[in-house]
């Protein structure tokens, strides 16, 4: 199931019709996608939208990316019509991931 979400995320990110269109939001989106590796982005998506795992190094990258970038990515994906029904669950997992990654990054 996580594979489906990863594939969907890649498709949405690569198809211009799904891109964030507002100027400032678009700039933020484009900036955020450059701050972490594609593998870490996929791991984050798999964790939040499936049952994936995330490494400590990806946690570090996520924290370096910043909370605003993380929230932008998760909100953008969870706002898809077929995911909206479980959006609160995804946002909760997103918050849990952020808290875990912040605590992990403080140790490293």
TrEMBL record:
Does this entry carry the keyword Signal?
A: yes
Ordered alphabetically, the record's keywords are: Signal
**Keyword flag Transcription:** no
Q: Where is the Prolamin-like domain?
A: 31-102
Q: Which residues form the signal peptide?
A: 1-19
| Pfam families in the record | Prolamin_like
Q: Which domain of life is it from?
A: Eukaryota
Which named protein is this? Prolamin-like domain-containing protein
Where does this protein come from, organism-wise? Answer: Arabis nemorensis
